[in-house]
Specification:
By secondary structure, the protein is an all-alpha fold. About 45% of the residues lie in helices and about 0% in strands. It is built from 3 helices and no strands. The longest helix is centred in the first third of the chain and has 20 residues.
Length: about 80
């Protein structure tokens, strides 16, 4: 399912509301055996939820691979692995 919420990104309360909604929806999807990604992958909008989806062990592997091939975090910064 694709969603396109219309919010004021300059409104702290609206952004926080969307973050709470996303965390709750993603948790339910994962518990049900689903995934928080689709054909668009784990992009900027979902990077904060990657560990929820894959677990700490796998996300640590993602980080190690990223550092190995892109130590300056120049390629696709903030996607899949948070920028350090």
């Amino acid at each position: 399912m694709h969603t396109r919420p219309v919010i004021d990104l300059d409104s702290k309360s609206e952004v926080e509301l969307m973050e709470r909604i996303a965390a709750n929806v993603f948790a339910k999807v994962i518990r049900s055996g689903g995934t928080i990604t689709g054909e668009h992958g784990d992009g900027l909008a979902r990077v904060g939820y990657i560990e929820m989806m894959y677990g700490k062990h796998i996300t640590n592997i993602f980080s190690k691979v990223k550092k190995l091939f892109d130590p300056a975090f120049m390629m696709n910064p903030g996607k899949k692995v948070p920028v350090e």
